[in-house]
């Protein structure tokens, strides 16, 4: 079994084969990662800023969207390059370059940003469910927790199935807005004029900053550097160069589609609201009502469907990003469903709290707050990314050239400066709006912001002051040691788990292959009835007696064939009971049958093998059903 613990998204690492393919098949093999990334560029947070910009200023801010998309294209291409060339995601590269204490805080900030992003997606989906089915927002928010099951199902199906689902969601969003464009009939000439840069002041500048902050998201840079590693490539200069080229195609196509969706939302707001005198539409709910008022039922229904699809797809990619930063920064790996559940619960709590104590109308402000939090994190992803891809020692011939470096640092400066301005103005607004809370803002919020700014300065300076002082280049599987002699291992005591299924025969056969007639065999079965859980060995209900009799039949059959066998019955939790028997009986090899469950059944039944494997210190052979 390969050791994939240190690989980024180890369960799908190098799972998509790209070699021995030509023409369009080659291109299709690489298409996918950027589509998962692109959903973060069209999530409900983007909707809020696009609707506000279009309703207040018409088509004038389209050029801001376009410029944001160009910056995103540059940064996402650098992220993909890092993952392809070094075989590292951004979090892993940061772990190698920065001290453990700094990595811990980088993880905390990135995790907060993902929760903030998830918060916007929860609210967006809940609003979409309310608009479409008149479901109360608090119920819609609570229902979003069920997407953990969908996430688990898609991950079990493999990377291509997950990508297909996301692309389907993007298609629904894109098609919905394409149809709406025909309904509202925007002025094409005025749209073209919107691509010309204009001077930004006052509220226009504030909304423009919000658009940039909502467009270039930090977790997407972590995500992209990992997702490109799902493609299996030849580790030669030619193979790496080819992978960079095809992933650039993927990035350009996917992010331009995201730009078209964002532009469509802004154009829809400009045509439907700005042209009709509704200049202050900042709430998604208001946009829905006005669409219904102006264009009838079809346009708002499409709007709600697209909102749900956008929120659902974005929340799945947020889970993957959370897994990447946790494993990369602090080397902690937990089950994806648990990772998803934790992130979702942490995001649901502030949404439910806001609805209960401030009402549904406050959710719009909560979305804006989530974008402010995202803004704080952005520099911590962008600055290390540019440092890592500029490093000629680590990147070799694939380090970025001077012109790209200038563009990248220029983009970083713009992003950090504009987002710093956004945070500064937000703090001033809080002080003006809540003067009674000014003391707490100065004593808690301001010091936190200053601390974050100092950490950002350290992240920027360390790679320059301690150039090439990071830890040795990351090696996923360690260094191969010399192989001298390989003596056969003789197992004296082998345990076999029995569940009275068709798989028992295969498990016993594999166990006998390991020990022959020299070994002792212990057959283990666990009784899981309610009585067994409460009373343990004292229970003798009908099912327990039947299981004991059946297990003894197996023992008798093995003894007739000349093997030494005994039966052991466990009670209650299968994993705990099996591990207890293995440890108490001094067993040196364990054979277990796998249920072969998928999706929801995996969550309910399929964790026994994995749990036992972590509770025992002996080799475990897992036999899957034929």
UniProtKB/TrEMBL annotation:
Question: Matching Gene3D superfamilies, A to Z?
Answer: HUPs
UniProt entry tagged with the keyword Signal: no
Span of the signal peptide: none
Membrane topology classification: Multi-pass membrane protein
Keywords associated with the record: Cell membrane, Ion transport, Membrane, Symport, Transmembrane, Transmembrane helix, Transport
What subcellular compartments does it reside in? Answer: Cell membrane; Membrane
Query: Which Pfam families is this protein grouped with?
Result: Nramp (PF01566), Usp (PF00582)
InterPro entries the record matches: NRAMP_fam (IPR001046), Rossmann-like_a/b/a_fold (IPR014729), UspA (IPR006016)
**Ranges of residues in domain UspA:** 491-624
Q: Where are the transmembrane segments?
A: 23-41, 61-84, 104-127, 133-155, 162-184, 204-223, 244-274, 294-320, 341-359, 365-386, 398-419, 439-461
Q: Which family does it belong to?
A: Belongs to the NRAMP family.
Extract the PANTHER family matched here: NATURAL RESISTANCE-ASSOCIATED MACROPHAGE PROTEIN 2, SOLUTE CARRIER PROTEIN FAMILY 11 MEMBER
Q: What does this protein do?
A: H(+)-stimulated, divalent metal cation uptake system.
Protein name per UniProt: Divalent metal cation transporter MntH
Gene name per UniProt: mntH
């Amino acid at each position: 079994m390969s050791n994939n613990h240190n690989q980024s998204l180890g369960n799908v690492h190098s799972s998509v084969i790209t070699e021995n393919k030509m023409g369009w098949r080659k291109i299709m093999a690489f298409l996918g990662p950027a589509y998962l990334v692109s959903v973060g560029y069209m999530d409900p947070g983007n909707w809020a800023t696009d609707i506000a910009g279009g309703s207040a200023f018409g088509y004038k801010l389209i050029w801001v969207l376009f410029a944001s998309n160009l910056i995103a294209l540059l940064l996402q291409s650098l992220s993909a390059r890092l993952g392809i060339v070094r075989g590292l995601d951004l979090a892993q590269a940061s772990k190698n370059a920065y001290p453990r204490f700094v990595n811990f805080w980088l993880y905390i900030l990135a995790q907060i940003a993902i929760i903030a992003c998830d918060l916007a997606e929860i609210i967006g989906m809940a609003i979409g469910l309310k608009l479409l089915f008149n479901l109360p927002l608090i119920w819609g928010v609570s229902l979003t927790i069920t997407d953990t099951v969908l996430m688990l199902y898609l991950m079990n199906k493999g990377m291509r199935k997950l990508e297909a689902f996301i692309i389907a969601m993007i298609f629904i969003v894109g098609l919905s807005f394409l149809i709406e464009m025909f309904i509202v009939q925007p002025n094409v000439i005025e749209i073209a004029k919107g691509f010309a840069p204009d001077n930004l002041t006052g509220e226009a500048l504030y909304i423009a900053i919000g658009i940039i902050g909502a467009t270039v998201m930090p977790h997407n840079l972590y995500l992209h550097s990992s997702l490109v590693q799902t493609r299996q490539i030849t580790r030669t200069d030619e193979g790496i160069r080819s992978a960079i080229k095809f992933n650039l195609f993927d990035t350009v196509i996917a992010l331009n589609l995201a730009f078209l969706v964002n532009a469509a939302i802004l154009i829809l707001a400009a045509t439907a609201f700005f042209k009709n005198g509704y200049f202050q539409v900042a709430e998604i709910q208001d946009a829905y009502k006005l669409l219904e008022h102006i264009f009838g039922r079809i346009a708002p229904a499409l709007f709600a469907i697209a909102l749900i699809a956008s929120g659902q797809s974005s929340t799945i990619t947020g889970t993957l990003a959370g897994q990447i930063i946790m494993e990369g920064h602090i080397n902690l790996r937990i089950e994806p469903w648990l990772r998803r559940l934790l992130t979702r619960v942490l995001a649901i709590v502030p949404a439910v709290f806001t609805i209960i104590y401030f009402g549904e109308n406050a959710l719009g402000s909560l979305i804006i707050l989530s974008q402010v939090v995202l803004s704080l994190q952005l520099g911590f992803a962008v600055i290390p990314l540019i440092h890592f891809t500029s490093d000629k020692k680590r990147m070799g011939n694939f380090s970025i050239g001077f012109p790209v470096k200038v563009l990248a640092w220029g983009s970083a400066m713009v992003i950090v400066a504009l987002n710093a301005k956004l945070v500064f103005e937000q703090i001033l607004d809080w002080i003006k709006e809540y003067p009674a809370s000014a003391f707490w803002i100065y004593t808690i919020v301001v010091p936190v912001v200053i601390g974050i700014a100092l950490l950002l300065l350290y992240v920027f300076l360390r790679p320059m002051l301690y150039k090439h002082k990071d830890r040795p280049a990351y090696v996923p599987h360690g260094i191969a040691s010399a192989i001298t002699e390989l003596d056969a291992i003789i197992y004296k005591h082998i345990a076999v788990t029995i569940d009275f299924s068709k798989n028992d025969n295969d498990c016993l056969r594999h166990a006998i292959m390991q020990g022959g007639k020299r070994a002792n065999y212990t057959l283990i079965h666990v009784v899981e009835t309610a009585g067994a859980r409460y009373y343990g060995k004292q229970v003798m209900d009908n099912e327990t007696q039947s299981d004991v009799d059946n297990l003894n039949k197996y023992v008798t059959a093995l003894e007739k064939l000349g093997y030494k066998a005994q039966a052991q019955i466990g009670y209650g939790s299968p994993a705990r009971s099996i591990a207890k028997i293995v440890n108490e009986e001094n067993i040196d090899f364990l054979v277990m049958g796998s249920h072969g469950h998928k999706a929801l059944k995996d969550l309910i039944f399929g964790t026994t093998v994995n749990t036992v494997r972590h509770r025992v210190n002996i080799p475990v052979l897992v036999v899957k059903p034929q």
